[in-house]
Amino acid sequence: MPLRTEHRINGTIRLCTDQDFDTIYLIINDAAQAYKAVIPADCWHAPYMSREELRAGIVSGIEFWGFELGGSLAGVMGIQPVQDVTLIRHAYVRTSHRRHGIGGQLLQFLLARINTPTLIGTWAAADWAIRFYQKHGFQLVTPEEKDRLLPKYWGVPARQIETSVVLADERWFSRSGKIKTPAV
């Protein structure tokens, strides 16, 4: 695979407000096109995330942060405290703004503000997402641990559990004493 280059750009990271709802919705559904024909067909739907799902996520405690560039959001990432961990939720960068370090800057910004072990769930077939999180210090948990964590913290359907992975930060592995799986 050829090496991809990344040209890092600078922007402003800010907490999203109710006025950003439509933009968050558009960014998620634009960026999620990368999953089409990659994740199992029975897990894909258009739009990828409905307005109702997004609103329910925000009501359940997802706090979105955005990377603003030239007065508009180029990427978003959510955090959600659940029980004894913090989840990184819905990390998306507009297709037109990928490969500029926006996702990494958002992730590092949020991680600096999180004091609990951090977990991330993503599709097992999204190898680019898994590599991104591994590049930022996250490691895959075992399949057995994934099967335990997804219902506990995310409450996702059985089919999504079958087709997903969970990555954890060093704090989670240190606290839990669990084994890291080898890099993909």
The CATH homologous superfamily name equals Gcn5-related N-acetyltransferase (GNAT)
Structural class: alpha+beta
N-to-C series of helices and strands: EHHEEEHEHEHHEH
- Record the strand order, biggest sheet: 1-2-3-4-5-7-6
Measured distance between first and last alpha carbons? 14 Å
What's the helical proportion of residues?
Answer: 25-40%
Average pLDDT across residues? 91
β-strand percent reads 15-25%
Number of helices: 7
Instruction: Tell me the total number of β-strands.
Output: 7
Written account of the structure:
With 184 residues, this protein is α+β, with helices and mostly antiparallel strands. Helix content is 34%, strand content 24%. Strands 1-2-3-4-5-7-6 form a seven-stranded mixed sheet, with helices on both faces. The longest helix is centred in the C-terminal third of the chain and has 12 residues, at 143-154. The chain is globular, with a radius of gyration of 16 Å. It starts with 11 loop residues before the first strand and ends in an 8-residue tail after the last helix.
